[in-house]
Amino acid sequence: MGFLLSKSMDANFKKQQEFMLHNGRLQMERQILMQNQMRERQMAMQVAWSREFLNYFGAFYAVTTVGLTLGALKRKKPFLLAPVVPLSFILAYQMDSAYGTLIYRLRGEAESIMTSEHGRLDLPHGTPTFDTIEKARRARSNLASFLEK
Hints:
149 residues, mainly alpha, elongated
């Protein structure tokens, strides 16, 4: 009789382990999906910000370029057009950021860094572990209790 009970408990234990494994995997998949959706939303906000900034900067660029061109022609001083050159580079960068392929080039460069220069990505003192975090927490806890005395 004890053998049958033991066999039943083993079967239940295995079912419980499988359920816990399945539940953990499901939870991790949900976490990954949620983090990816948050990343996508943040990137969409950055692109939207670039496009909005481009509207304002484009208007500033147009007014400035027309004003400087008219001033250079009226006063016959071509050096007044000098600020148009750096402003043109800024405008080109913003256009590339808002509507161009900048994000794809950045992604490609990031992938290249991750594959061929992975050492640049290492954190100082390595990746935090449970033990290092717990050690820091205990040190802080001991320090806090010492300061309270």
